[in-house]
Design brief:
Elements: E1 4-10, E2 23-28, E3 32-41, E4 45-57, E5 62-71, E6 74-83, E7 91-103, E8 107-120, E9 127-140, H1 145-148, E10 159-171, E11 182-192, E12 194-196, E13 202-204, E14 212-224, E15 232-245, E16 276-278, E17 291-293, E18 307-309, E19 314-327, E20 332-344, E21 359-370, E22 373-382, E23 393-398
Parallel strand pairs: 16-17
Antiparallel strand pairs: 1-2, 3-4, 4-5, 5-6, 6-7, 7-8, 8-9, 9-10, 10-11, 11-14, 12-13, 14-15, 15-19, 16-18, 19-20, 20-21, 21-22, 22-23
């Protein structure tokens, strides 16, 4: 539950000779936190973070959190309320509201809300099925005129996204904040909009302006390297995702997969990995990370051809970590990691995940489970970087990777 710092259970003899009493003594711990942090990243420059969280909101066991993150490249806020036992039942309820503006590849925005209703399926409440609904306004704040014409105007387009789907969550970790052993797995399948039945008829189920089906799987494993010792832990995280158009149009840029960054494949800039197109000629790629070229260019006749990272319709991300606690009392640890991942598929949705097109990186970092939350300072080094990629990337983040 995360409400107590220490729990002591004893069994003194009861009044009856053949019975025992159970005595439970607990030491409560603070269940709320407020933090203001600042940092510097070579990608986002100066960053300011404000976080408020309460794990026992109103004394009813609700989990409430509010966060704001501001930098030169990103402006983001999020408000979340989660009731793990809705109306004292085995149902759960989660409400989210958020607004995101980011300028890593394009000037994007994403704002909306989501509602999730779940039900525990086992006696230990480790397995949960959920129904999730999301409504959001997504798109680009500004766009070059020539990009608006790419692929008939289907690639870079704004609109409302309304989606619903089912999810399955399996949580067997020994600690949901700082896990050292166990597994965590999620799978989801969500439909946005509707499905085209034939050339003339579209069955619109959820509404909105985009129609696609998305499936995702995430698996995490935690295991101490030395049995019965938890100061050195091996961690593994893997994410598979695929998205399919259900109306025959191109999946828009804002919903496509892109990799790279401290929360994906470290050692590369944010969202810099994935299928791309080059504005000159026409030569469709064969999927993977190959570059396609199109008869569209910049409106500036003096401009050089640009490689546009447009993202893929499949993704596969793998993170391998070895984390060692160096000052356990202060919550300080060091980590070494190896990442492998990418986004796949050409702009038309052709192609599939190809292990030969994975991009690799390694690195190290320092982590501090501070009073304001988990802090990460990590240096990533790409393996076989391309000419336009950095040889090393340092990044800073508040929050855990997995």
């Amino acid at each position: 539950m995360g409400f107590f710092e220490e729990v002591r259970i004893s069994t003194p003899r009861a009044e009856e000779p053949d019975t025992l009493d159970m005595k439970v003594e607990v030491t409560e711990q603070p269940t709320g936190s407020f933090s203001v942090g600042a940092g510097f990243s070579n990608i986002e420059n100066f960053m300011l973070n404000v976080n408020i969280s309460k794990n026992n909101f109103l004394g009813l066991g609700y989990v409430m959190s509010a966060a704001a993150n501001v930098s030169s490249q990103r402006q983001q806020w999020q408000l979340q309320l989660f009731d793990p036992y809705f109306l004292d039942s085995r149902w759960t309820l989660r409400l989210d509201g958020y607004s995101i503006n980011r300028q890593f590849i394009e000037d994007e925005y994403q704002r909306g809300f989501s509602v999730s209703v779940g039900r525990y399926l086992d006696q230990r409440d480790d397995i949960r099925m959920t129904f999730d609904y999301t409504f959001e306004d997504t798109g680009l704040n500004s766009l070059d005129a020539y990009k608006e014409r790419l692929l008939g105007g289907q690639l870079y387009r704004n609109g409302l996204t309304s989606s619903g789907g089912l999810g399955l969550i399996i949580d067997k970790r020994n600690n949901r904040i700082q896990a050292t052993r166990g597994i965590f797995a999620t799978s989801s399948l969500a439909l946005s909009g509707g499905v085209r039945l034939d050339e003339e008829e579209l069955l619109n189920i959820f509404g909105g302006e985009f129609n696609f089906l998305e499936g995702k799987i995430n698996f995490r494993a935690y295991q101490p390297v030395i049995p019965q010792k938890e100061w050195l832990v091996f961690k593994y995280n893997s994410t598979l995702g695929s998205i399919w158009s259900t109306d025959g149009t191109i999946v828009p840029f804002i919903h496509r997969y892109r990799a790279g960054g401290i929360n994906s494949v470290r050692g590369y800039n944010w969202f810099s990995l994935g299928p791309s197109i080059r504005a000159a000629g026409y030569n469709p790629g064969s999927g993977g990370t190959s570059t396609s070229t199109i008869f569209v260019g910049s409106d500036d006749p003096q401009a050089a051809d640009d490689r546009l990272v447009v993202g893929g319709t499949q993704t596969w991300i793998n993170n391998f970590e070895l984390e060692a606690a160096v000052i356990p009392q202060a919550g300080i640890s060091v980590v070494t990691f190896f990442d492998a991942g990418n986004a796949f598929g050409d702009p038309w949705g052709e192609g599939a995940i190809n292990p030969a097109d994975l991009r690799f990186a390694y690195g190290m970092g320092v982590r501090w489970f501070s009073p304001m939350g988990p802090l990460r300072f990590e240096w990533g080094f790409p393996i076989n970087p391309r000419e336009d990629e950095r040889r090393a990337v340092f990044d800073f983040s508040i929050g855990s990777l997995f």
